[in-house]
Amino acid sequence: MKDFAALLDRLVYTPSRNGKLRLLADYFRRTPDPDRGWALAALTGDLDFPNAKAGAIRDLAREQADEVLFALSYDYVGDLAETTALLWQTQSGAEPPRLAGVVEALRRAGRTEVRGLVSGWLDGLDATGRWALLKLITGGLRIGVSARLARVALAQAFDAAVEEIEEVWHAVEPPYGDLFAWLAGDGEKPDVAGRATFRPFMLAHPLEEGVALDPADWLVEWKWDGIRVQLAARGGERRLYSRTGDDISAAFPDVLDAMGFDGVLDGELLVRDPADPGSADPASFNALQQRLNRKTVSKKMLAAHPAYVVAYDILFDGAADLRDLPLEKRRERLEAFAAQHGHPDIELSARLDAPDWPAVAALQAEARRLGREGLMLKRRDSRYEPGRKTGLWFKWKRAPLLADAVLMYAQRGHGRRSSFYSDYTFGVWRGGELVPVGKAYFGFTDEELAQLDRWVRNHTLNRFGPVREVEKRLVFEVAFDSIHPSPRHKSGLAMRFPRIARIRWDKPAGEADRIEALEAMV
Q: What is the percent of the chain with per-residue pLDDT over 70, rounded to a whole number?
């Protein structure tokens, strides 16, 4: 546990991606099994302890300090694991636990046993170890390491291709003994034949401003405002994967029901507007969000937000791997595949007619009016290669929308931002009151973050745990991709991908935008 705690602590204070990769790769090389496997599972989000609840951790912390001290400490620190780790008073000289011992005990323990186990482990650890233990248990690492970055580091540790690791990832289980044996040269590559496993996506580069391409060499399609997915069906097994390789099948049984085929397709996941199910246009991304990140989905949700996929590439036709074929040939195979296995919830992406570059530019200019995110341009002779390959696929997104909004609330961040108020909720005017329309936590520099943090502390009106209400004086210029109706928000609107474009220190709050201006952008 000490080595794992030291790793997490160093990752938190290592801002650079390459620095994090070096730390992770070194840990995976030198740490023995099964500890490194359980650490990898924690970093990739593949560990779950259903009987270990955050409420039990909070109760343990309150037993170490009076209610007022706990509340003040939690308000200042803004993180339950860190607060508990700092308040904990060791009761005995217990031996520090091993990571594998902790994981295996928690996987067996019932809810009534968890408190005693955690209390004993905390007694055997220093403050850093206690923090790491509690982060592991609650699943909220927040150390700037994504599941993808952890797999990249694993590849670097053993001089392997990350794409090969991603192709076998869903065929292995924690603590990944067979995976590590293969990477170390002591075992065979995990077998994925006949399995509906994930295949790494081919990605696009943003099209640089001023670049013009010859449409004769490029397939032009709409860029849809959904999420990229892969439909994998092999040997009776059906899976739906996100772009990061997460299995999201449980949230979309309606899409799985449409997969009456054997193969692998690449496409865009969307939802239909139930008020106009025959429309060629999907419902807003906000409607799709109602279906995302769910372990189960109700019949009511299925009816309110029916999902479908726009398919634009085929990777496997049965057992035949088509990725080495040029795009033009793959498109022909996709059209034949769709004709053979057609289903109304799997549509083909249309080829757009654009004989010259002005025609392409005219289509891109129409994207927002038509509810599209922009255009995709793909070389007709391109093989399907994982990652972003220079000069093969481009995305030409529509320009962002802009609005001036007033800062209303600020919340402490996580990881290296846990001491800063870095998450900002902002609103616009409706009559004489401000109503929240979005939340953002990026788009500013470290220097600007320090300025904003000082401003929040000096202009606080009320405190609600880690959240502060501030004086309604500071204006942000907010950039966002789109805005949609949302009954979950007081304003009735929700922004897609909001970020801070500028801090308008110079602009009076009374001159910020009104709700009518944003409603006109819907």
A: 99
**What gap in Å lies between CA 453 and CA 411, rounded to an integer?**
10
Q: What is the mean pLDDT of residues 77-91?
A: 81
Query: Residue 405, Cα to own-chain centre: how many angstroms?
Result: 26
Copy the structure tokens of residue 251.
Answer: 């949230």
Q: How far apart are the C-alpha atoms of 171 and 195, rounded to whole Å?
A: 8
H-assigned helices in 305-368 = 327-340, 357-365
Q: Is 223 a catalytic residue?
A: yes
Residue 318 near residue 263 (C-beta atoms within 8 A): yes
Q: Answer yes or no: is pLDDT of 38 > 70.
A: yes
Determine which one of 20, 135, 223, 378 is catalytic. Answer: 223
Spatial distance between the Cα atoms of 349 and 346, rounded to a whole number of angstroms: 10
Residue for token pair 């690791």: 165
The answer to whether residue 479 scores a pLDDT higher than 80 is yes
Instruction: Give the tens place of pLDDT for each residue, 450-466.
Output: 999 999 999 999 998 78
- Specify the pLDDT at position 91: 63
- Residue 76 pLDDT > 80, yes or no? no
Run of H or E residues at 39: helix 35-43
Confidence (pLDDT) at 277: 67
For 377, half-sphere exposure in the C-beta direction (CA atoms, 13 angstrom radius) is 26
User: Which CATH number is correct for 401-519, 2.60.40.420, 3.40.50.620, 1.10.10.10, 2.40.50.140?
Assistant: 2.40.50.140
Element (H, E) at 111: helix 111-123
